[in-house]
Amino acid sequence: MEDLSFYIGVLGNVIAVLVLLSPAETFWQIIKHKSTEDFESLPYICTLLNASLWTYYGITKPGEYLVATINGFGILVEAIYVTLFLIYAPSKQIRVRTYNINVYLQFNIRKKLA
């Protein structure tokens, strides 16, 4: 039964990679147009926070390396998305707001966990 659980976990990770990479076309459009246009950054910031928290869980709980690895990949992908959003935001006000939301969520929630 443990082998079945592992294989289902691997399948879940493969599906999670597809989910994490699904906005790639949107970001190609952002790069191509050199603008985020009307796209919002909040979904990507929240996904970055989600991946961060699950990675923390996967690292601290013994045997949860599948959780830690896929969410570590999620941190990388979402950090790239947020960075691209910061680079191509059409105004300084949007960049500052995106940066502030990201910093607030990442550090204040992690501080409460410690």
Q: What structural keywords apply?
A:
114 residues, mainly alpha, flat
Describe the structure.
There is one protein chain. The mean pLDDT is 90. The protein has 5 helices and no strands. The protein has a domain at 47-114. It has 114 residues and is an all-alpha fold.
Low-pLDDT parts are none
Class per helix and strand makeup? mainly alpha
Give the overall shape.
flat
Q: How many helix segments?
A: 5
Q: What kind of sheet is the major sheet?
A: none
SSE string, helices as H and strands as E: HHHHH
Q: What is the number of beta strands?
A: 0
Residues in helix, %: over 70%
Assembly state of the chains shown: single chain
Instruction: Determine the mean pLDDT.
Output: 90
What is this structure's SSE topology?
Blueprint: H1 2-21, H2 24-33, H3 42-60, H4 65-88, H5 92-113
Helix pairs in contact: 1-4, 2-4, 3-4, 3-5, 4-5
Task: Give a concise summary.
This protein has helices at residues 2-21, 24-33, 42-60, 65-88, 92-113. It is mostly helical.
